[in-house]
Design a protein that fits this description.
This protein is mainly α. The protein contains 18 helices and two strands. It folds into two domains: 81 residues, no CATH class; 338 residues, no CATH class. Strand 1 and strand 2 form a beta hairpin.
Length: 442
C-alpha cells in the first residue's frame, strides 16, 4: 500500500526491535492469546510495554483508544497497529495475521469434530454441560459490560430501547448501531456529562516509541480502501464464477462482510445479529449449535469473533454440493474468516496516520458511548435467546441446565474463575451426567 513504517529515533524508555524478533513474538502471541479481548490486551501490555519496552505506556493507550472506536476485534486490531508502528505495512500484516492464524486451524478441527461426532455419547454429554455455561457467560457479560457502560440513567434508557427494538420490533442490528451512533454524536455537545468521557490530560504522546509520522494525504485512505476492495472482490468473484452467485459460499461472503462492518461493542453484540440470521433466516445451524460454537471460541486462543468461522463451517457442511461436507465446510469457514478480518486491516491501515486525531475526537467517542450502551440491550437479547433454547426443555425448565448455569455464573461473577476453566468444567460435568444416566438406564 506504499506506506513505510515510522521514522525517527526511539523515544526515551523504549528500544528498537528488529523485524525477525517482532515476528517471533507475534507468532508466539497467536498461540497464547486466551482470555478474550481484556486478557489479550493485558498480555500485550505486559509484554510490549512493561517487559520488552517496544512501545510507551501513553502510546499503547492512545492506540487502544483508537482501536476501540473501530468495528471489529480490538485486540487483533491493536496488535496490527503496533506491528505497523514498529515495521510498517508488513509488520502490521504479520502481527494481525498471526494473531488469528493458530485459532483458524484449531476452530476448523473442533468444528469438524462437533459436526461429525456430535451424536457420540461422550460428545453429546460434553455439549449438554457446556451449553448452560455459555448462557452464564453471556449473562455475566451483560452485567459486566452494563456496569462499565451504563453510568447514567439516559444510557440505561438507550440500552432498554435497543433491547425492545431488537427483541419485540425486529429492528435489524446494523440499524440499531447506526441510530445509537448518530444519537451519541448529536448529543455530544448538549449532553456532555452523558456521552463524553473526561478530556485527556498530559503531553501529546508519540506513537510506537517513535516520533509521529507526517500526516498522510487525504487520498491515502482511498488508496487503502481500493486495495482492500480488490482483495475482497477478486477471490469472491472467482468463487462466484466457480460455484455460482447463489451458492452458500457467496451467501457466507456477503453476510459476514456486512457483519464485519457493524461489529461495534464486541463479539457478543454482533453474535445476536449472526445468531438470528444463521438460525432463522439462512438455517445454517440450530440454536443449540450456535451455543456450541460460542463455547469453542471462548475456550480457544484468538478473538471471540472466531465463532463466525464455526458458523461458516456449519453452513458449508449443511450444503456440501459436489465438494462433500468436510471440504465444503472448510471452504465456507475460510471464506468467513477472510471476509470477517479483512475490514480490520482496512480500518487500521487507512486510519493509522490519523490515529491521534481520530482517537481524540470527542464526537467519535460520544458516538461510541451511544453504540456501546445500545449494545448492552442487544447482548441481553442474546442471553435470553440462548437461555430459552438451553435452560428449558420445550416449555418445562431443565433442572440440570439451570443448576449448572447458576454454578457457572457464580464462579465467573463472584469467585473469578478463569473462563476456559469454567467451560472445561461444564464439559466434564456434562460427560459425568451422561455417563451416570446411561449407567442407571435413563
Amino acid at each position: 500500500m506504499g506506506m513505510a513504517g515510522p521514522t525517527g529515533t526511539p523515544a526515551a524508555g523504549t528500544r528498537p526491535v528488529g523485524f525477525g524478533e517482532a515476528l517471533r513474538y507475534w507468532v508466539r502471541l497467536g498461540f497464547i492469546n486466551f482470555g478474550g479481548p481484556a486478557g489479550q490486551i493485558a498480555i500485550m501490555h505486559r509484554d510490549l510495554v512493561e517487559d520488552r519496552r517496544w512501545i510507551g505506556e501513553r502510546d499503547f493507550l492512545r492506540a487502544l483508544n483508537f482501536c476501540m472506536l473501530l468495528p471489529g476485534p480490538e485486540a487483533q486490531q491493536l496488535a496490527t497497529y503496533i506491528g505497523w508502528r514498529l515495521h510498517g505495512l508488513w509488520g502490521g500484516v504479520m502481527a494481525g495475521v498471526w494473531f488469528i492464524l493458530p485459532s483458524v486451524f484449531v476452530m476448523l478441527a473442533l468444528s469438524w469434530l462437533l459436526a461429525a461426532h456430535r451424536d457420540a455419547p461422550l460428545m453429546e454429554g460434553a455439549l449438554y454441560g457446556v451449553q448452560p455455561v455459555v448462557v452464564a457467560i453471556v449473562a455475566e457479560a451483560v452485567l459486566r459490560i452494563g456496569g462499565r457502560t451504563l453510568r447514567h440513567g439516559s444510557l440505561v434508557l438507550l440500552a432498554a430501547a435497543a433491547f425492545v427494538a431488537i427483541r419485540f420490533l425486529g429492528v435489524p442490528f446494523p440499524a440499531i448501531v447506526a441510530l445509537a451512533g448518530v444519537l451519541g454524536w448529536a448529543l455530544a455537545r448538549p449532553l456532555p456529562r452523558v456521552f463524553l468521557p473526561p478530556a485527556p490530560t498530559g503531553d501529546r504522546p508519540t506513537c510506537g516509541g517513535q516520533a509521529s509520522p507526517a500526516m498522510a494525504p487525504l487520498t491515502y485512505p482511498l488508496k487503502v480502501a481500493a486495495v482492500c476492495v480488490g482483495l475482497w472482490a477478486v477471490p469472491v468473484g472467482l468463487l462466484a464464477l466457480w460455484q455460482g452467485w447463489e451458492s452458500v459460499y457467496l451467501d457466507v461472503a456477503r453476510f459476514f462482510t456486512v457483519a464485519a462492518f457493524v461489529t461495534f461493542g464486541g463479539a457478543y453484540a454482533v453474535l445476536s445479529y449472526v445468531a438470528e440470521a444463521a438460525v432463522t433466516v439462512y438455517r445454517w445451524l440450530e440454536p443449540r449449535e450456535m451455543v456450541n460454537g460460542l463455547a469453542l471460541a471462548e475456550s480457544t486462543p484468538g478473538p471471540l469473533i472466531m465463532v463466525t468461522q464455526y458458523v461458516g463451517f456449519m453452513a458449508g457442511w449443511r450444503s456440501p454440493g459436489e465438494l462433500g461436507p468436510f471440504w465444503s465446510g472448510t471452504l465456507a469457514a475460510l471464506v468467513t474468516t477472510y471476509v470477517t478480518f479483512l475490514p480490520s486491516f482496512l480500518f487500521i491501515f487507512a486510519g493509522a496516520p490519523y490515529v491521534e486525531a481520530l482517537a481524540g475526537s470527542r464526537h467519535l467517542q460520544a458516538a461510541l458511548v451511544g453504540v456501546t450502551a445500545a449494545v448492552v440491550g442487544v447482548i441481553l437479547h442474546l442471553a435470553l435467546f440462548f437461555a430459552t433454547h438451553v435452560l428449558f426443555d420445550g416449555r418445562r425448565p431443565d433442572p440440570f441446565a439451570l443448576a449448572l448455569a447458576g454454578l457457572a455464573f457464580l464462579g465467573l461473577r463472584r469467585l473469578r474463575w478463569p473462563l476456559p476453566g469454567v467451560v472445561a468444567l461444564g464439559a466434564l460435568v456434562g460427560v459425568g451426567w451422561a455417563v451416570g444416566r446411561r449407567a442407571v438406564g435413563f
